[in-house]
């Protein structure tokens, strides 16, 4: 099983992710913003799991432990954001549950990408992505930029609602998981 962890589940993303096969995927999302308001759709499909929230000062931490423990995913896809405390929890739980981490990201902030200069936050994000088994970026240009700074395998899935393209990426991902099991 593959988990995709989303901090929130906006309508446009729900419309794409709801077509993923329920047998192989679970989408873990949270339904609360910093202000405590609803920020996403509330799907009824079994594919989606509304994840509990732990408030840490002004930040929120998604608590996927129950779902990870009960469903034992082989792979968890997440967004490596500096302020996303869930990443650190996933990193701590990785040796216990043995899943692979996959970063799904733009990879670098726009200013750094445009200037070619690497800020501290981008260097830190690179470090976070190096804990991943695979990185999925939204553009080939950003993937090529990341390859200069990160040694992990990078694949591209355009930031699009083209579900055919998304299917191809997840097929590639599934093949990588199968190959890593053989090792």
List keywords for this structure.
7-stranded parallel beta sheet, 7 helices, alpha/beta, two-stranded antiparallel ribbon, about 180 residues
Give an overview of the whole structure:
The structure is a single chain. By secondary structure, this protein is of the alpha/beta class. The mean pLDDT is 80. Helix content is 39%, strand content 21%. The two termini are 19 Å apart. It has helices at 11-17, 65-71, 85-97, 110-115, 120-129, 140-147, 163-182, and strands at 2-5, 25-29, 48-50, 53-56, 59-62, 75-78, 100-105, 134-137, 153-156. The longest helix has 20 residues, at 163-182.
Category by helix and strand content = alpha/beta
What is the strand arrangement across the widest sheet?
3-2-1-6-7-8-9
User: What composes the largest sheet?
Assistant: 7 strands, parallel
Number of helices: 7
- The SSE order reads EHEEEEHEHEHHEHEH
Inertia-based shape: globular
Instruction: Compute the separation of the termini in Å.
Output: 19 Å
Radius of gyration from the alpha-carbon trace, in angstroms: 16 Å
- Low-confidence spans: none
Number of strands: 9
- The helix content, as a percent range, equals 25-40%
- The averaged pLDDT comes out at 80
Report the β-strand fraction as a percent range.
15-25%
